[in-house]
Structures are given as C-alpha cells and as structure tokens.
Amino acid sequence: MALHDRMVTEALGWSAGDRLGVTDDFPLRFDVMILLVAGVVHRLHHRGENEVAQALWDMTFEGLEESLRQRGVTDLSMARRMKKLVRQATGRRDAFLAAWDAGDGAALRQAVARNVLNGADPDDPRVTGLIEGVAAFVAGV
C-alpha cells in the first residue's frame, strides 16, 4: 500500500538525525509511526474507510515484525515481542484518538510528550512541531 510506504518515509524523517532532539532508535521510530498511523486511521474512520484503516494498522505491524527480524529477533521470541508492541501501540493509539475525537489539544500534547518524546513538557516546541507535521501529513491523505 503506497500510503503505508509514505508513512514509513515520514516517520523516518521525523526520527532521523537530531530533528526531535532524542536518540534515533527503534522505540522512537515506533512511537512516531504509531502517532502517524493513529492520525491517518482517525481520518479514514471519519471518511467511513474502516477496512482501509484496518489494513493500514495490520501493515504497520507486519513492517514492525520485519524490522525486528532484520535486527536479529528470532521466531522463539517474536510472538512475545509483537504482543508487547501491539499492546503498547494500542494504548498510544487510543490516547491519541481520544484526544482528537474530543478536540482536546492539551490532551494530545500530553500524549505526544509522554509517549513520543520521553515525557517532555507538553508545551515543548518539538511536541507542537510534531503534531503540526502529523496534521499536515494527514491532511494530504
């Protein structure tokens, strides 16, 4: 799905280098990707494209599994790792979606600060920049 590929590129762009002022590693890429997926899923649901939203969510975890395999995670521990990632992602997604559904910018800033930027201040300009960047990406979907 071309949309998923665009999202991966966008997430890597946000996590690369020192753009967010935190270490570019798997957890950061995961958190940025989940924020992007949540934004796109939110938009798709509001347009009634629930099957596309579900396919995108599923593709995200297929990509995460592939990434973990490339990092040497074996079949013996993959199920446990994926279960943990799905649980974490679902919690983050639900927090982001609840804030968007309520139109609660403060709650969204808190969720992004806590989950993506390791507990940064919700008023940190990086939080605002990331939220605005995701909004711009989602507007183009």
TrEMBL record:
Q: Which residues form the Ubiquinol-cytochrome c chaperone domain?
A: 19-135
Entries under InterPro entries matching the protein: Ubiq_cyt_c_chap
- Which Pfam families does the entry link to? Ubiq_cyt_C_chap (PF03981)
Q: Family per UniProt?
A: Belongs to the UPF0174 family.
Q: What is this protein called?
A: Ubiquinol-cytochrome c chaperone domain-containing protein
Supply the source organism for this entry.
Candidatus Magnetaquiglobus chichijimensis
State the organism's lineage.
Bacteria, Pseudomonadati, Pseudomonadota, Magnetococcia, Magnetococcales
